[in-house]
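Lecture 7 notes: from sequence to structure.
We start with the chain below.
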Amino acid sequence: MAVRSCPIAVLGSGSIGVSWAIVFARADHPVQLYDVDASTAERVTREINTKLADLATEDLLDCAPHVIAARITATFELPKAVTGAGLIVECVPEDLVVKQALFGQLEGLVEATAVVASSSSSIAGSSSFAGCSFRNRCLVAHPANPPHILPVVELVPAPFTTPDSIETARALLTDAGMSPVLVHREVEGFVYNRLQGAVLREAYCLVRDGVASVADIDRVMTEGLGRRWSVVGPFETVDLNTRGGIAEHARRMGPAYARMGRERGQNDPWTPELVAEVTEARRAALAIDRWDERVRWRDRLMLALERCRRQQPAGGDA
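Predicted structure tokens for the same chain:
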């Protein structure tokens, strides 16, 4: 699907809203950045300029920061923000009542072909958009924070969202440099926060049980798991960690992980059927005879990241 420059409305000028505005502006879309509070204008301008300057410093922009900033217009009038917009991105606080109130204000203002996306972190679109006359063109687009740096965005359609609306959102986001992931059904927290939540729950438990300190748990992530997961995800990680691939990893380690789960009251064993499904997906992505080649690719990429880390000055404010 070819994507042309089209007006984008970003509703809410908090950290996510400002970041979304940069995402679309650097992709050559004119952006109306709306907030109810006119006193935010100075802060928003400062944040946009600072973030664009940081991107330019790392050579991550295709044109000068001031050119991109000029594509973003702050407005405090909702009708002005959404008039002509092909995509409306809601970024108000994670409160169902607040979101529903805003979508109610959009009645009669949304263009007939506009897609409306909520940046919700956990609230399903079937709740947020239930009362909207335009709900068939609504879905959740949950970004990682901040989206102008982290490209993944979860597209979570409600049962009433049309396929055309999903495709329009996917095409616009892909063209803007994002990496959309389609979530097949609504679950609280979607994928990103359920994975993040699983790690956080265990981290809290480890502190509570006196196993390790807060600082050391963070160090295990930043100097180990996090570095590896920035290159390969959890399934590919264990696929490459064990010669023979993910099926062999499940055979060796599955019982231990099942015991750890039961210890936390979570009895979710990796059944043979589930392991077979995941194995099939991994072998479709990587033939087992290319395993050594892919391991070397992973290691080279982690070495490159390590080189970049060592080139950065030590310390810094938390």
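Points to note: The mean pLDDT is 95. The chain has 13 helices and eight strands.
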